[in-house]
Amino acid sequence: MRFHREFFFNPMILLIAAIFAVHSVLTILAWQGWLSLAGLLAGMLIYAVMEYLVHRFLMHRFPRVAPKIFEGHAMHHRHPNDVKYLFSGVPYDIAAYAVFYLILLALTRDFPLTFAVVAGTSLYQLYYQWMHYAAHRPIKPITPWGRWMKKKHLLHHFMDEQSWYGVSHPVLDVLLGTDNPRPKSEKRQSSHQPG
After folding, report:
1. Residues 127, 46: Cα–Cα separation, whole Å
2. How many Cβ atoms sit within 10 Å of the Cβ of residue 73?
3. 121-134 residue pLDDT tens
4. Model pTM?
């Protein structure tokens, strides 16, 4: 129970849960049938893809694109079990959702569809955050899927940080060939080591 409290009362989780709750209600109130359902699924897919791309490229490959995000992730790799480094700061998520919202509205010109996409995205982000949190805390996932994903994420931290970028799913790791740790002779120096 302690870990559930620690997770659910984190300010970033409270923010994402609020975004999900508000956009779920708005989606229900403005329900457009299959279009709303497609928006929910599209939002989940968008987060699943962005999870991998941001982790692999912004947090590991290109430190100059988003230096604060890169440095925050470097601290997470240096202190992987410290809860202080498990979640992004609230300002990052507010900025990301504001930009995402504007892009969605510009593309769809449809508020109800935008509500559905944001509801799906925030729901998947809550799932992702729980998977990441559970991987780093002394929690034994109850499903084989959860235990397998925890193992793969810990391999990313403790065996080869250039493999297993997916925290909540392995699809892009498999498709893009980052699903197996490389032999030591092939590994690049850690992108998060000092100096």
Report:
1. 13
2. 22
3. 999 999 999 999 99
4. 0.91
